[in-house]
Amino acid sequence: MRALHFSENGLRLSQIEVPNAEKGEALIRVRMAGICSTDLEIVRGYLNFRGVIGHEFVGTVEDSSNRDLVGKRVVGEINLGCGVCAWCTRKNERHCQQRRVLGILGKDGCFAEFITLPLRNLYRVPDRLEDRIACFVEPVAACYQIIEQLTFMPHDRVAVLGDGKLGILAAQVIAHWVPGTVLVGHHERKLKVAQACGVKIAREDELELKSYDTVVEATGSPGGMEKAIGLVRPQGTIVLKSTYHGDLLFDAAPLVINEIHLIGSRCGPFGPAIAALAGKDLCVEPLIDATYPLDQAEDAFIKAKEPEALKVLIDCK
Amino acid sequence: MRALHFSENGLRLSQIEVPNAEKGEALIRVRMAGICSTDLEIVRGYLNFRGVIGHEFVGTVEDSSNRDLVGKRVVGEINLGCGVCAWCTRKNERHCQQRRVLGILGKDGCFAEFITLPLRNLYRVPDRLEDRIACFVEPVAACYQIIEQLTFMPHDRVAVLGDGKLGILAAQVIAHWVPGTVLVGHHERKLKVAQACGVKIAREDELELKSYDTVVEATGSPGGMEKAIGLVRPQGTIVLKSTYHGDLLFDAAPLVINEIHLIGSRCGPFGPAIAALAGKDLCVEPLIDATYPLDQAEDAFIKAKEPEALKVLIDCK
User: Fold this and answer.
1) What is the pLDDT of residues A266-284, one digit of tens each?
2) For residue A247, what pLDDT is reported?
């Protein structure tokens, strides 16, 4: 099969074997997949991953011990726990210390014709959820993780820093709880897309310092932390949603003096993400910049790396 | 009166005017005061404070609009809010943005014969609580702030990093909730004192990585953060109790990947601290290394700066 393979030789569309489904796994024919910033980080050397990359996808079950699933469209949680440790038995395999992660850690990913995933990772996709929208389930789930971790009140002051894909999605999700949520960024085009999706935009210099109950740091840049510390109120919360690659340098004294909460946030629950996207409660269509066939996956990455780019999809059919 | 004054010329025992009590303030004759690590940081330039330093004290009310207090022994909360902002009206003047802080920010401190403090900041000291022990109320209150901020369960795994004064006190306070709390440090003598106080000691190399529900970072050194991140379990909590002076550099990726909570922790409630010290629920006597008269306050600071030093008191009577 064709697959986008990353190794010391770089990113190459390669011909490799169709993966064998392990016990409890389904074989899935990938329909459509999305490029995430983490994929771009991996190509820069993050986590030392070698193999087929990609973890945002929608596919059709090709083979499965659960015959009912065959032929059905699915999306899948990307963390594969060991199944026996305390984390896995408490249904929190996202934190299993032996976990593999689709296209990120020890498991071939979805920029390919086929992948395998455990049946327990799969979620049926409602018919009304198109492939190109279903590719957003995984990143939207990551935004719902913020809702799982914090308690919001409707009149909270919430700022999301970073006008990338994740920032725009997070601002939309949080706005369901806190309508006044603002997005802060400095990419003209991305901000226009966000605005077209109904996201409230604020210029950085308009923001009152030390006044935000919650600041979501989704810039992915080291300066984002200092900005977040400047904006959050005493005893307020900063959510770290960026994948930091390399060391972070900042003045930590305000964290102590102002008793700030900082909380890391990674993968989230698929259920609410599927429901929100199927119910058209979120606007994601304008975030799609381009769709490339799998054969042009290398070009898709070149496009996704552009500073003003948002979501780039790969059609794997 | 005599007072230990800090300015660009350094730390000098000086002759200054007795302070005037403002409206709502009492005039207090300082009996005994303790040197805190924050005082040592101030002398190194932290917060650019100029004036009389010191914030841990017990004194006798010399003059007050509340005549019942005159002649009584008191300790005092160190944050002086503006009294009218949203923080102050919600009884959280520790976070008032216009606050002054005794001996730290805009308010002369307690290494002096007299100080003034608002009546609302004062707490009566029970007769059975001796002066030398009452000096610990303020730092012990800071440890009870951790109890206010988190929820502990008896079988949690808790590690306190740093065998300084604050670490030893924090380990004792938390051990009331979590008996298995361990203290980690590398100063032979300090660890012996901690052990004499009944604190459980653990060597750093015995600690299981990624296994602690809560790690209290009280080393005051930049490396403490990396150690705390290494020890805390996924979705566990790191309490930042150190005053960091200068920038902190660390790999923040695990904060996100392991969804770690980080929470800054500063001043705390005096009530439980007084009760615990008066009830002899905490062991602090062995932490006292020396007591100097106010006339030798400069020498007291030299002693307090020794790497193996714990609490140094100044007798201001």
Assistant:
1) 999 999 999 999 999 999 9
2) 82
Return the structure tokens found at B130. Answer: 């001796």
Max Cα-Cα span within chain A: 58
pLDDT in tens, A233-249: 999 999 999 877 778 88
pLDDT over 90 at A152, yes or no:
yes
Residue contact A250–B253, C-beta within 8 A: no
Q: How far apart are CA A47 and CA A300, in angstroms?
A: 22
Which residue in the block uniquely carries the two structure tokens 């999305």? Answer: A34
For B59, the 3-state DSSP assignment is strand
Rounded to whole angstroms, the Cα distance separating A216 from B271 reads 35
Find the CB nearest B240 among A210, A251, A255: A255
CA B233 to chain centre: 27
The rounded distance, in Å, linking the Cα atoms of B275 and B280 is: 8
Decide if A249 and B249 are in contact by the 8 Å CB cutoff. yes
pLDDT of the residue at B120: 95
Q: Do A265 and B247 touch (CB under 8 A)?
A: no
Question: Are the beta carbons of A259 and B263 separated by less than 8 Å?
Answer: yes
Residue pair B134/B126 in contact by the 8 Å Cβ criterion: no
* Contacts A–B by Cβ distance under 8 A: 105
Contact A240 B256 (CB under 8 A): yes
Q: What is the pLDDT of residue A47?
A: 82
Burial per residue of B192-229, b for 16 or more beta-carbon CB atoms within 10 angstroms, e otherwise: ebbeebebeeeeeeebeeeebbbbbbbbbebebbbbbb
User: What's the rounded Cα separation, in Å, for the pair A304 and B291?
Assistant: 66
Nearest by CB to residue B247, choosing from A97, A250, A266, is A250
Residue B143 CA to residue B216 CA, distance in Å, equals 10
Per-residue pLDDT for A220 more than 90? no
Tell me if A59 sits within 8 A of A137, measured CB to CB. no
Most confident of A89-93, A251-255, B139-143: B139-143
Candidates B249, B255, B256; nearest CB to A247: B249
> What are the chain A neighbours of B87 within 8 Å (beta carbons)?
234
**Which residue of chain B comes nearest to A222, CA vs CA?**
B252
- Asked if residues A173 and A145 have their Cβ atoms less than 8 Å apart, the reply is no
Which residues touch A11 (CB under 8 Å, ≥6 apart)? A4, A5, A43, A53, A298, A301
Distance from the Cα of B266 to chain A's closest Cα (Å) equals 6
- Do the Cβ atoms of B243 and A253 come within 8 Å? yes
CB atoms within 10 A of CB A209: 12
Please state the pTM of the whole predicted model. Answer: 0.94
Mean pLDDT calculated for residue range A157-186: 97
Q: Which residues contact A131 (CB under 8 A, 6 or more apart)?
A: A31, A32, A58, A73
Average pLDDT estimate for A81-94? 92
- As a whole number of angstroms, the distance between CA B77 and CA B138 comes to 7
Q: What is the mean pLDDT of residues A209-227?
A: 93
Residue of A nearest to B225 (CA): A252
Instruction: Give pLDDT < 70 ranges for chain B.
Output: none
> What is the rounded distance in angstroms from the CA atom of residue B201 to the CA atom of residue A232?
37
Q: A311-315 and A288-293 as β-strands: parallel, antiparallel, unpaired?
A: parallel
